[in-house]
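Thread: "does anyone have the structure for this chain?"

Original post by V.I.:
We have the sequence but no experimental structure in hand. Need at least a predicted one for the grant figures.
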Amino acid sequence: MAKIRILIIEDNRILREGISAMINRQLDVTIAAVSDGRDNILMKARAVKPHVVLMDLGLDSQNSLDAVQSLKKAFPDIKIIGMGLAPTQADIMEFVQAGAEGFILKDATVEDVVKTIRAIVAGETVLPTPMAGSLFSQVIEHARFNGKRNIKRLIRITEREEEIIALIADGMSNKPIATRLNIAPFTVKSHVHNILEKLALHSRLQIASHAHDEKPY
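Reply from O.Q.:
Generated one for you, tokens below.
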């Protein structure tokens, strides 16, 4: 049985060499090549013909998302797995939208990394464990095939949520929003939680920024 060939693109030398050494101990997976992101990634992929690319989320030398898009355009059959230490849901959403089939945390165990590689090669989409089963994980499945606008239609922001997003963008806190809309502060808090979850955001400031950038819904 042919081994799964891996191309690692990681600008941290210690991580790059450590991941390579650990993966090469597996019987069915091998490192075909490594890169710090400063060389021509497309040329390297063409030369070594990897089945899977492990791509660092935050390369210093180039935009990781652009690299993912270029690789998928040139080599549609290559599977790409993003790697990050503490990515936000928005980070992972962007990576999958760019063409990645999954994402792993850099503090994952060797067993988890290899398991993820095998699953991706088998055609699955793999997200970090804390996100598995969430609304976000369901939405991100669609992100691989749709643009952001389509994703927002899939998420289906309600009219009440739109009202609350607009008021947050105006700088209002939960209690004034509750008074304005004649609902309980707890209800506002619940709506804010749902908005954060649906839009893969993490703060009221991000909600306000989203409101200014993405109108109309």
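V.I.: this helps a lot. The chain has two domains: 4-147, 156-214.
O.Q.: and Residues 133-138 have pLDDT under 50 and may be disordered.
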